[in-house]
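Researcher: Sequence recovery benchmark, item below. Answer with residues only.
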């Protein structure tokens, strides 16, 4: 007996169910289930691959500032290279990097000063810090 693509039509034509007909139905049913499982696995694999691409910048292969500091401490990076790479890392994380030359240089007298400064007289390195404003 030849296998049919439509087991239900074979059953309807004969009026009775035979074991080869049951085996044909089970075979095609199993084949459909296997195809659905394979399709689900492929879909899941693709979904995970696309999701991982979206968060690639936070994976462990990204450089951190601690890594750069360690390379500089080991002598593998110069101060200029460290500054460039530090700026690139911070910008890649969405931060803005201020130009170090535009930052005010604090002297020893300014380091402990937490109050308002007297802008009328310039501070000299030997002056004690101004008392806090009340």
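Model:
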């Amino acid at each position: 007996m030849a296998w049919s693509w439509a087991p239900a039509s074979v059953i309807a034509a004969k009026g009775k169910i035979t074991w080869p007909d049951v085996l044909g139905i089970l075979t095609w049913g199993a084949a459909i289930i296997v195809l659905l499982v394979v399709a689900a696995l492929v879909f899941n694999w693709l979904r995970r691959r696309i999701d991982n691409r979206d968060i690639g910048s936070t994976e462990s292969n990204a450089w951190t500032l601690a890594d750069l500091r360690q390379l500089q401490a080991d002598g593998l990076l110069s101060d200029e290279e460290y500054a460039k790479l530090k700026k690139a890392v911070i910008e890649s994380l969405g931060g803005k990097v201020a130009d170090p030359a535009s930052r005010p240089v604090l002297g020893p007298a300014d380091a402990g000063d937490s109050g308002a400064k007297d802008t009328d007289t310039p501070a000299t390195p030997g002056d004690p810090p101004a008392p806090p404003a009340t």
